[in-house]
Model the fold of this input.
Amino acid sequence: MTIFRLSITKWTLIAFAGFWAASSTAQPQDVALEHARALLKQHPLIDSHNDLPAVIRESGKPPRDVEAYDLNTRTAGDTDIPRLREGGVGGQFWSVWIPSLPEVGKRGFARIQLEQIDIALRMIERYPKDLAPALSADDIERANREGRIASLLGVEGGHAIENSLGALRDYYRLGVRYMTLTHFNTNDWADSATDEARHGGLTKFGEEVVREMNRLGMLVDISHVSADTMNDALDVTEAPVIFSHSSALALTASPRNVPDAVLARMPKNGGVVMVDFISPFSVQGPEHERWQAEFEKATGAKLGDPNFDKAVEAYTASHPEPRATLKDVADHIEHVRDVAGIDHVGIGSDFYGDPANMAEGLEDVSRYPYLFAELIRRGWNDADLEKLARGNILRTFRGAEQVSARLRASRQASFLTIEQLDGKKEMPDKY
Done:
């Protein structure tokens, strides 16, 4: 009997040892992911850029039908309420992007922008149990206490104001809380990163736009702009700025990314760089650089060209583009942290309905915990992860609100025009 019991004990121990060895191999990943989920439950993530309103406008069935695009069920794209919940999202700046192309301008940028804002607001109104309209940092925290996802608006591209500070103020009244100064195209008062530099940065009117945004409390977003525009905006602004969806130029040589010299200015400004998930902006290594050179040679297309997306689609059918990974995005986050500081990095995913063009492992809004798990495995502590998730963007937002309160008490709304400041006509023929 004793021998039998010893045999059982021996084989039980062997079996347990094998199970422990097998489970310990998977344990670090599982533990890190559970840690990330728990952290984001306690500190819900605030993402500064998601193009869902444009997806509804362009890809909905039928297009522009907010009710038909049901966010309570899994959508064909990358964003819906169940996956936002799974991803630990507590706040989202919904981008109300409209194209900056001349043919759009002929129909009226402001008109199209108002239609896009309407789509976003109706989307938020349709899901009151899950989405809460937010206009301030306090509103974000109030929504999170209610268990809802704070929803804010960001205009992507200064072409939308049609050179009018009055239009800028009206967008603020409608709930817009940041504006990206340009999109892919240079406008009449600011140079884009992906178009001809016509101004050497900001014009005098462009500087006035920044000052009026400071007075309003609208965050100045310098994603998409040229390095000269970045530096001019930092020179003029009295409030912290954001890069709502940009990565590090030192790691990926895309004109959309931020040079180290600009990253190094962020501590003095107090703003935040929200790192992007789109593959071409975060992919690393010589393979992609070779692919990019061959693509441009074969097609002549560059980022910002009207037919760029079609050129990419045609070329990649036979020449697959090297794709970034979740680890590449983590590298960009760490680079921004290392150069700008831990207080100046956040998350601006740039989800726009095309999971295949995002970094592998970050295909939709449910995947944020996996990114945080990677950072946990790299040794990040909870205090720094909380700053990345929400603390830094909330501090920046509050900083802009404080500057606004001071400026509103000391000066009136600007009534200056681009014609007065730059000698240009009010309504440009093209952007």
User: Anything to note?
Assistant: DSSP finds 18 helices and nine strands in the chain.
